[in-house]
Design goal:
359 residues; Hypothetical Protein Yjia, Chain: A,domain 2; seven-stranded parallel β-sheet; five-stranded antiparallel β-sheet; 31% helix; binds guanosine-5'-triphosphate
């Protein structure tokens, strides 16, 4: 059996990865797909959203409670191992990395001799929140938060084959040209730039790109060197550049390179808050918007128990989208992700503003 192609979908918090994947799944009923969804928070909201589409040709596998990471820190390897046993049932694997991950950890695992004969990287797509890119910063985040966001954002672009400019519905041609210029300046080696109107992309531009693979026996060779005890990140990142996605030249995913990018930034925090009491569907989004102005909350998402059903809430900074569907829910659950956010303060404001107990 041929190697199963793997498409990695990366991109910053809330850029539209799940929405884009959901659309691709809907457009490819003839493909048997496995989707591994990795979330930073302990609760996998994206997996639940994809699963709610009830697409029979897809299997959704949650990878919650952390990042796809290196070595023992990750539950990615057992998940892939499990998929490997049943790989004849799938035509393609999609991996949605968490919004705080750099996709290189995935490459290292795929290149491991245990998996290299069975899986091959097809392409890595980086989904970009284009208005955010053009805005240039995260309001209310403070300098440390902005620096952390920028460095992650740049690293995700750097490791992409295809950059997808998303959320462009309301943008002008001039904005798009500016965004393209910005991406090219940040990541000169990116091969393709695609425009996604409303997070929709032709599946031909997403699956089966074969950007790695054959030429990549050299291109994606085995890991060159294992991390040494005591090896520290180099000061000059350029000397560690094991990537050249902009051309078809050989590049090896050196473990030291990856270790460099995988230095944990403990400033990123996530917590889930729950409330058993019903919520006001009209007020809750306004309260979330207010929370994002008061605190460095970059992303909030989850489900609320409201009159008439279940409300899905999706906040990216101060932009909050909601949708209410019929159904029942025992308790509302919201995941908050931010840079140095204070759980107690968020609980106090949320409980006060909603007049309900959140914990
Ligand atoms: N206006 C607009 N909104 C979009 C578009 N794509 C996604 N969104 C919205 O952006 C929010 C975040 O989308 P997701 O697909 O959950 O983003 P994500 O990258 O999977 O988020 P994380 O996994 O938390 O990093 C949701 O409210 C989407 O409806 C788009 O093209 N246009």
């Amino acid at each position: 059996m041929n190697q199963t192609p793997v498409t990695v979908v990366t991109g910053f918090l809330g850029s539209g990865k799940t929405t884009l994947i959901s659309d691709v799944l809907g457009q490819t009923p003839d493909r048997r797909l496995a989707v591994i969804v990795n979330e930073f928070g302990e609760k996998n909201v994206d997996g639940a959203i994809l699963r709610s589409e009830q697409l029979e040709h897809c299997e959704i596998l949650d990878l919650e409670g952390g990042l796809i990471a290196y070595a023992e820190a990750s539950n990615f390897v057992p998940t892939l191992r499990e998929l490997q046993k049943r790989r004849h049932r799938f035509d393609h694997v999609l991996i949605e990395t968490s919004g705080l991950a750099v996709p290189t950890a995935v490459y290292v695992v795929l290149e491991n001799p245990e998996f290299a004969a069975d899986f091959v990287l097809d392409a890595t797509l980086a989904v970009v929140d284009t208005p955010l890119l053009l805005g240039g910063d995260f309001e209310n985040g403070g300098e440390a938060s902005q620096a952390a966001v920028q460095s992650l954002f740049d690293a995700q672009l750097e490791h992409a084959d295809v950059v997808v400019l998303n959320k462009i519905d309301a943008l002008t041609e001039y904005d798009l040209l500016r965004a393209e210029g910005d991406v090219r300046a940040r990541a000169p080696k990116v091969r393709f730039l695609e425009l996604a109107y409303g997070a929709k992309l032709d599946p031909q531009l997403t699956l089966g790109l074969k950007l790695h693979g054959l030429q990549g026996a050299a291109h994606h060779g085995p890991v060159r060197s294992a991390p040494q005890d005591g090896s520290a990140p180099l000061e000059d990142q350029a000397t560690l550049d094991g990537h050249s996605h902009g051309d078809l030249g050989a590049h090896l995913h050196s473990m030291s390179t990856h270790m460099h990018f995988h230095v944990h930034d403990t400033g990123w925090q996530s917590f889930t808050l729950k409330s058993a009491q019903p919520q006001d569907a009209a007020r809750l989004p306004i309260i979330l918007e207010d929370l994002a102005r008061k605190f460095p909350v970059l992303r909030a998402k989850g489900f609320a128990r409201v009159a008439g059903g279940v409300q899905t809430l999706q906040a990216v900074r101060t932009r909050v989208d909601t949708e209410t569907r019929p159904g029942t829910l025992d308790a509302s659950e919201l995941v908050f992700i931010g840079y140095h956010i204070n759980r107690k303060k968020v609980i106090a404001v949320l409980s006060g503003a909603t007049g309900t107990v959140w914990e």
